[in-house]
Amino acid sequence: MASLQVLVVDDEPAIRQMLTLMLMRAGYEVEAAASAEEASARLAKGEFDVALCDIKLPGMDGIELLRRTKAAGSDVFFIMITAFASMDTAIEALKAGATDYIVKPARNEEILHRLRQIEALRGLKNENRALRNLVLGNRDDWYRFRAASMLELERLVTKVAPTDSTVLVTGESGTGKGVVARQIHEMSARREAPFIPVNCGAIPDNLLESELFGHTKGAFTSADRARKGLFLQADRGTIFLDEVGELPLAMQTKLLHVIEDKQVRPIGGEDVRKVDVRIVAATNRDPQAMVAAAQFREDLYYRLSVFQIRVPPLRERREDIPDLVRFMLSKIARGGAQRKLELDPVAEELLAAYGWPGNVRELDNVINRAHILADGDTITPADLPPEVARTALVPVEPGVRVPPQGTLREQMRHLETEAIQRAVRECNGDRRAAAQLLGMGLSSLYRKLEGIETESARVPVAARPAGGA
User: Fold this and answer.
1) Three-class secondary structure of residue 86 per DSSP
2) How far apart are CA 362 and CA 371, in angstroms?
3) C-alpha to C-alpha distance for 389 and 370, rounded to whole angstroms
4) Which stretch, 7-16, 450-459, 460-469, has highest mean pLDDT?
5) DSSP-derived secondary structure letter, 215
6) Average pLDDT of the segment spanning 104-108
7) Is the pLDDT of residue 133 over 60?
8) Is the domain 318-463 a CATH 3.40.50.720 member?
9) Rounded mean pLDDT of 295-315?
10) Across-strand partners of 53?
11) Helix, strand, or coil here: 455?
């Protein structure tokens, strides 16, 4: 676990030395400043987590240092120390933004206890920042797969998650690489720490280093305040580098150094910061082909692919589609939808037959669209996009099925009617058994049959096929 970086601010050399040695022995990274002016210059670089600051200082006092630091936008925790046990002074320090207040002579155990509290609070702040900025899932939102390839994927995730191994997740766009990364995090010992996803392809090249590693105040023209990078925000947790293949070669070199040295240097900073982060990377490109084309560093590829997981496209695991659709419908209902819809059997066949070039992401979009369009309590073929519904009109083998005529909605209704009537015949008229066979509710089946009978009654007898009822 990366330790806090502490700045001791006191004008008495003996106290500075004593506190510095005590904190270093406790495992903290410590520096010291003899005045508020010196401390202000160091704090402006954004390299410290905590300032252990005396209130009574020559020149600028500790409370003024606190005010100026907070006004500059710093998130440094201040613990104020004074020999003057005045309640008014304590209230003034707390109003100015101090985290805590200790009266001299301060016991070592008391100082260490306050620092441990700040460590816990810092973890909560990092996690809350991540929660505000990201759309997070939870373990209840995970779908249990049927396909053998996905069961193997789950086995690999279960094996690698408890380790600290770097993982490279590959697969087409929309297959769920981000879900796999989150599962790895949630099943690891780091689950209580932040999970920070980064879309490497969405950040402009000139901002990448600042985003990943942070910067000090004044490091460049627009750096009006110090900023912690995403690696430090993910400290003790997991950083997910999505589309890592989009990183420019110069940034690949810096990322390699971070992986090897386990430390980062903010832009404009003089000192490096230790960081304890697990890296999960993902790409929809062929990393080995990129290495061969000199588009990706070979040494970085080997660092990232210590353990590699491939997520298969949806077309290779069609047996998952029906239950995956029902899972998505349940999720929509849990999200506050006024109704929970069922899936029409013909619509289910169409969804299973479609090629899904956009994979799970495309399927999710289609189901959300269908949920909006559906008139009743069932998603029918007419609620599906034309490119999905069109798959029904392409016979599996030449001559197996002659497509019905009419508009797309009429053709889909015809196919639905065929499926329902066939199920009723196979169940010898037992409608409850037919509903179970079709995977739909009995009341829905009755409504469908009533609609079929009503439609049939509208067709003139002369227009019906020979032998028709």
Assistant:
1) coil
2) 14
3) 12
4) 7-16
5) E
6) 82
7) no
8) no
9) 95
10) 9, 80
11) helix
Q: At what angle do helices 62-71 and 36-43 cross, to 10 degrees?
A: 20
Does the pLDDT of residue 233 top 60, yes or no?
Answer: yes
Residue 383 is classified by DSSP as: G
Is the CATH number of domain 5-122 3.40.50.2300? yes
For 277, other C-beta atoms within 10 Å of its C-beta total 24
- Distance set, CA 191 to CA 184, 226, 237, 261 (Å): 9, 28, 7, 23
Amino acid at site 150 = M
Please list the residue range(s) of the chain that carry CATH number 1.10.8.60: 318-463
For residue 458, the model assigns a pLDDT of 54
The residue type of 304 is L
Say which residues have a Cβ less than 8 Å from residue 257's Cβ, sequence separation at least 6: none
Closest of 49, 36, 47 to residue 10, by C-alpha:
36
Please tell me the distance from the alpha carbon of residue 274 to that of residue 28, in angstroms, as a whole number: 11
**Residue found by looking up tokens 């993982």 in the block:** 167
Q: What is the DSSP string of 290-312?
A: HHHTTSS-HHHHHHHTTEEEE--
Q: What's the half-sphere exposure (Cβ side, CA atoms, 13 Å) at 388?
A: 24
| Token pair of 270 as six digits | 């003089």
Whole-model pTM: value is: 0.61
Residues of the chain with CATH 3.40.50.300: 139-312
Percent of the chain at pLDDT above 70? Answer: 84
Strands 100-103 and 77-82: parallel
* DSSP collapsed to 3 states, 100-119: EEEECCCCHHHHHHHHHHHH
Q: Among 3.40.50.300, 3.30.70.100, 3.40.640.10, 3.30.1050.10, name the CATH number for the domain at 139-312.
A: 3.40.50.300
E-strand ranges in 214-335 read: 214-215, 227-228, 238-242, 263-264, 273-274, 278-283, 307-310
**Greater confidence, 222 or 239?**
239
